[in-house]
Amino acid sequence: MAEFVYANAEREMEVYGYDGVVKSHCRMCHGGCGVLVYTRNGKVAKIAGDPDCPINHGTLCSKGLASAQLAYHPDRLTYPVRRIGPKGSGRWERVSWDEALDAIAEKISGYKTAFGPESVVMGYGTGRENEAVIYRFANLLGTPNVLTAGHFCYGPRIATGIITCGTNPIADYENNPKCIMVWGNNVTISNPDCYKGEAFSTSVERGAKLIAVDPRMTRIAARADIWLPLRPGTDAALALGMLHVIVNERLYDAEFVENHVHGWAPFVERVNQYPPGKVEEITWVPEEKIREAARLFATTKPACIQWGVAIEQQVNCADNDRLLMFLMGLTGNIDAPGGQVLFDPPKIRNVGHFGAHRLLPEAQKQKRLGGDRFRLAGQFAIINPKCVWDAILTEKPYPVKMLFFISSNPLMTRGNAREVYRALEAVEFMAVSDFFLTPTAELADIVLPAATWLEMDYIGDFWKRHGYILPRRKVVQVGECRSDH
Ligand code: SF4
Fold first, then answer.
1. By alpha-carbon position, which residue is closest to atom 3 of ligand 1?
2. Which three-class secondary structure state does DSSP give residue 482?
3. Residue 278: is its pLDDT beyond 80?
4. Which domain holds residue 181?
5. For ligand 1, which residues put their CB under 6 angstroms from it?
6. Are residues 94 and 202 in the same domain?
7. Based on the domain organization, do 217 and 315 belong to the same domain?
8. Cα 344 to averaged position of ligand 1 atoms, centre (Å)
9. Is residue 416 situated within a structural domain?
10. Distance in Å, CA 257 to ligand 1 centroid
11. 381-438 pLDDT, tens per residue?
């Protein structure tokens, strides 16, 4: 296979005049697709899928294919800048990396001495490969405050997965599911954590039955055997309705219930409060469709649920997640090939080793903002952003003086933009590392130019459950951009 790839690569180079090709992996989403990056005159000329990669088998999505457009975008920030006018004035001066890093380091040291390390809040977006470094930095500094997107993206699934069945159950496409229930997910477009759309599409093409749970007629819903267009926010009721059918028609895996379920009687009592007729009123999904979907999912083996963060961006997200795990478990599809598998992550030191702040002294851990109110989230070092804005604006429970955002644009991505704006305007010092002068960066004191995946060496694992560790090679240097590491 390797010879085939390089034979093709050589032909590509000859025909199109490329002068180099680098084998690497993409990181335009959470990452993982193997790529061949072709270069001409020291620049990226084309990116193609690597047929040798066991994750994407030569396919790439539009984001991966467009990576060079991001790297060479004319608006990209390519050197460090310092703000010289009022916040939001758009007046910047170019500074050297040394000047920028010295200014940031001086502020961090000053606030640490005067107000304690917890007065410095680190932040990142849906980073995945810089997060271990950021947590490690926070641990060494001594701050328990790392602001992430985790509270409304995937974090609830990880947390409830651990307390419900030990870990996050992943759809096992490698072992041919015969039925796939896609719940609040557009996997062929979004290629989310742990999943690539290619594996899903291959399973459907092999004949897997498809159930789509989505208020919208997505492409996936259009090709589904059963489409359940639920009223937004009623996922838990729909899952309870399906469980009602599975329990009362005795379609569940009795052996699993006998050996692995705690609290069966109160569970059945709760499920019986949601007969499909009542669930139709709540969800607007016809009762008969709910029965049909429940029967198809419970009687087609193996079956898996492809779940999306749409179910986690709701106030009852932990319940949504647990109910989907109940559907997986009661139908005998947890820890089952072609169902939902419990992978061992690769043996690499990743965010799991640093993210929970295990290395922080207990007294510092206790200072995590919102730690007393959001205890499950606190187990994963996730803090609610509002606690940070409140601490900046009210100095309670203690003052937050500095924000350091790396690949994060909270002004655009967190709830209540007015409040976020007030907090970012009020904070004494803010440093940002990003590709562009984003709306958040416009309010910063120092902005650092971040490197794209094409501009760094790296070992990727992304704590995905596919179990692969992926090498990345630096292909080009753009301006003075540097990796977050
Ligand atoms: S799915 Fe993600 S890793 Fe794969 S090509 Fe698209 S952006 Fe890149």
1. 31
2. strand
3. yes
4. 169-341
5. 26, 28-29, 31-33, 56, 60-61, 63-64, 191, 196
6. no
7. yes
8. 22
9. yes
10. 38
11. 788 899 999 999 999 999 999 999 999 999 999 989 999 999 999 999 999 999 999 9
Helix, strand or coil for residue 481? Answer: coil
Distance CA 432, CA 439 (A): 11
pLDDT (average), residues 332-359: 80
Look up the CATH number of the domain holding residue 272: 3.40.228.10
From 50, 63, 185, mutation site for ligand 1 pocket: most ligand atoms within 8 A of C-beta = 63
Residue 394 sits in the same domain as residue 276 = no
Range scoring the smallest mean pLDDT among 100-109, 395-404, 438-447, 457-466: 457-466
- Say if 161 falls within a structural domain: no
Of all protein residues, the one whose alpha carbon is nearest to atom 4 of ligand 1 is 33
Per the structure, the count of domains in the chain is: 3
Cα–ligand 1 centroid distance for 90 (angstroms): 33
Considering the domain boundaries, does residue 157 fall inside one? no
Distance 263 CA to ligand 1 centre (A): 41
Nearest Cα residue to 195 out of 272, 84, 305: 305
Does 160 fall in a domain?
A: no
Backbone phi, psi, residue 304, to 5°: -135, 165
Q: What is the CATH number of the domain that holds 473?
A: 3.30.200.210
Distance 205 CA to ligand 1 centre (A): 21
Which stretch of 139-153, 353-367, 421-435 has the lowest confidence by average pLDDT?
Answer: 353-367
Same domain, 373 and 241: no
Q: Is 320 found in the same domain as 362? A: no
**Could you tell me which residues come within 8 angstroms of residue 125 by beta carbon, excluding any fewer than 6 positions away?**
148, 149, 407, 408, 409, 413
Residues 45 and 179 in one domain: no
Element (H, E) at 92: strand 92-94
Atom of ligand 1 minimally distant from the CA of 197: 1
Same domain, 181 and 314: yes
What is the CA(394)–ligand 1 centre distance, in A? Answer: 41
CATH code at 396? 3.40.50.740
**Percent composition of the chain: helix, strand, coil (DSSP 3-state, to 5):** 40, 15, 40
Q: Which of 291, 306, 300 is nearest to 331 (CA)?
A: 300
Pick from 29, 185, 195 the residue to mutate for probing ligand 1's pocket: most ligand atoms within 8 Å of its CB.
Answer: 29
Pick from 317, 55, 331, 345: nearest CA to 181: 331
Backbone angles phi, psi at 384, to 5 degrees: -80, 125
Q: Which atom, in ligand 1's list, is nearest to the CA of 191? A: 1
98 and 187 inside one domain: no
Pairing type for strands 146-147 and 120-124 reads parallel
- The pLDDT value given to residue 351: 66
